[in-house]
Design goal:
single chain; mainly alpha
Protein backbone atom coordinates (compact mmCIF):
# COMPACT_ATOMS: atom_id res chain seq x y z
CA UNK A 1 0.00 0.00 0.00
CA UNK A 2 2.90 2.30 -0.75
CA UNK A 3 1.11 4.12 -3.54
CA UNK A 4 -0.23 7.57 -2.77
CA UNK A 5 -3.90 7.73 -3.63
CA UNK A 6 -4.55 10.61 -5.99
CA UNK A 7 -7.97 11.89 -6.96
CA UNK A 8 -7.39 10.54 -10.48
CA UNK A 9 -6.59 7.03 -9.23
CA UNK A 10 -9.55 7.16 -6.84
CA UNK A 11 -11.87 7.99 -9.77
CA UNK A 12 -10.34 5.24 -11.96
CA UNK A 13 -10.91 2.71 -9.19
CA UNK A 14 -14.51 3.83 -8.70
CA UNK A 15 -15.14 3.60 -12.47
CA UNK A 16 -13.72 0.06 -12.53
CA UNK A 17 -15.86 -0.88 -9.51
CA UNK A 18 -19.01 0.44 -11.16
CA UNK A 19 -18.32 -1.51 -14.36
CA UNK A 20 -17.78 -4.74 -12.43
CA UNK A 21 -21.00 -4.16 -10.47
CA UNK A 22 -22.90 -3.59 -13.73
CA UNK A 23 -21.62 -6.92 -15.07
CA UNK A 24 -22.51 -8.78 -11.88
CA UNK A 25 -25.99 -7.24 -11.91
CA UNK A 26 -26.35 -8.22 -15.59
CA UNK A 27 -26.91 -4.58 -16.57
CA UNK A 28 -23.93 -4.67 -18.95
CA UNK A 29 -22.25 -7.40 -20.99
CA UNK A 30 -18.69 -8.22 -19.95
CA UNK A 31 -17.27 -7.18 -23.32
CA UNK A 32 -18.89 -3.76 -23.06
CA UNK A 33 -17.51 -3.31 -19.54
CA UNK A 34 -14.00 -4.29 -20.67
CA UNK A 35 -14.17 -1.74 -23.47
CA UNK A 36 -15.38 0.94 -21.05
CA UNK A 37 -12.54 0.42 -18.53
CA UNK A 38 -10.24 3.42 -18.10
CA UNK A 39 -7.50 3.19 -20.73
CA UNK A 40 -3.76 3.43 -20.16
CA UNK A 41 -4.08 3.43 -16.37
CA UNK A 42 -0.91 2.38 -14.56
CA UNK A 43 -2.65 1.66 -11.27
CA UNK A 44 -2.08 -2.01 -10.49
CA UNK A 45 -5.46 -2.36 -8.80
CA UNK A 46 -7.33 -1.17 -11.90
CA UNK A 47 -5.17 -3.32 -14.14
CA UNK A 48 -5.72 -6.42 -11.98
CA UNK A 49 -9.47 -5.81 -11.90
CA UNK A 50 -9.55 -5.58 -15.71
CA UNK A 51 -7.76 -8.91 -15.98
CA UNK A 52 -10.07 -10.46 -13.37
CA UNK A 53 -13.00 -9.43 -15.55
CA UNK A 54 -11.27 -10.95 -18.61
CA UNK A 55 -11.00 -14.23 -16.74
CA UNK A 56 -14.66 -13.94 -15.77
CA UNK A 57 -15.51 -13.66 -19.48
CA UNK A 58 -13.18 -16.52 -20.44
CA UNK A 59 -14.72 -18.79 -17.78
CA UNK A 60 -18.28 -18.40 -19.09
CA UNK A 61 -18.67 -22.08 -19.98
CA UNK A 62 -17.19 -23.24 -16.68
CA UNK A 63 -19.51 -20.87 -14.83
CA UNK A 64 -22.54 -22.38 -16.60
CA UNK A 65 -21.55 -25.92 -15.70
CA UNK A 66 -20.32 -25.36 -12.15
CA UNK A 67 -22.62 -23.31 -9.88
CA UNK A 68 -20.12 -23.40 -7.00
CA UNK A 69 -17.38 -21.95 -9.18
CA UNK A 70 -19.80 -19.30 -10.46
CA UNK A 71 -20.71 -18.28 -6.92
CA UNK A 72 -17.06 -18.15 -5.84
CA UNK A 73 -16.06 -16.07 -8.87
CA UNK A 74 -19.00 -13.70 -8.38
CA UNK A 75 -18.04 -13.16 -4.73
CA UNK A 76 -14.41 -12.58 -5.72
CA UNK A 77 -15.40 -9.92 -8.26
CA UNK A 78 -17.81 -8.36 -5.78
CA UNK A 79 -14.96 -8.08 -3.25
CA UNK A 80 -12.77 -6.48 -5.89
CA UNK A 81 -15.52 -3.99 -6.76
CA UNK A 82 -16.15 -3.10 -3.11
CA UNK A 83 -12.45 -2.56 -2.46
CA UNK A 84 -12.03 -0.37 -5.53
CA UNK A 85 -15.21 1.58 -4.79
CA UNK A 86 -13.68 2.67 -1.47
CA UNK A 87 -10.59 3.78 -3.38
CA UNK A 88 -8.48 1.13 -1.69
CA UNK A 89 -5.68 -0.80 -3.32
CA UNK A 90 -6.43 -4.46 -3.99
CA UNK A 91 -4.62 -6.97 -1.76
CA UNK A 92 -1.16 -7.93 -2.99
CA UNK A 93 -2.22 -11.56 -3.61
CA UNK A 94 -4.86 -10.35 -6.09
CA UNK A 95 -2.48 -7.99 -7.86
CA UNK A 96 0.27 -10.62 -8.08
CA UNK A 97 -2.17 -13.22 -9.45
CA UNK A 98 -2.78 -11.04 -12.51
CA UNK A 99 0.58 -9.26 -12.81
CA UNK A 100 1.92 -11.83 -15.28
CA UNK A 101 -0.71 -10.61 -17.75
CA UNK A 102 0.29 -6.93 -17.53
CA UNK A 103 2.40 -7.09 -20.69
CA UNK A 104 -0.78 -7.71 -22.63
CA UNK A 105 -2.63 -4.64 -23.89
CA UNK A 106 -5.04 -3.42 -21.24
CA UNK A 107 -7.78 -2.21 -23.55
CA UNK A 108 -8.11 -2.22 -27.29
CA UNK A 109 -8.22 1.29 -28.68
CA UNK A 110 -10.12 0.39 -31.83
CA UNK A 111 -13.85 0.72 -31.50
CA UNK A 112 -16.45 -1.97 -31.93
CA UNK A 113 -16.55 -5.71 -31.68
CA UNK A 114 -13.70 -6.27 -34.16
CA UNK A 115 -11.46 -3.97 -32.14
CA UNK A 116 -12.32 -5.81 -28.96
CA UNK A 117 -11.78 -9.23 -30.51
CA UNK A 118 -8.44 -8.16 -31.95
CA UNK A 119 -7.26 -6.85 -28.59
CA UNK A 120 -8.61 -9.86 -26.73
CA UNK A 121 -6.90 -12.24 -29.17
CA UNK A 122 -3.66 -10.35 -28.61
CA UNK A 123 -4.18 -10.68 -24.84
CA UNK A 124 -4.71 -14.43 -25.12
CA UNK A 125 -1.69 -14.87 -27.39
CA UNK A 126 0.64 -13.05 -24.99
CA UNK A 127 -0.46 -15.07 -21.96
CA UNK A 128 2.57 -16.78 -20.45
CA UNK A 129 2.37 -20.40 -19.49
CA UNK A 130 4.11 -21.20 -16.21
Amino acid sequence: MSEKLTKEIFLYRQKAAELIKCVLAKRMPVKQALLAFPKDVHDESVRASWHALCHYEADEELRKNNPEYKEEQDLFLEDIANTLNRGDELPEYVISAYKKYYDAPLNPHRQGLLGFLSGFESFLNTKKID
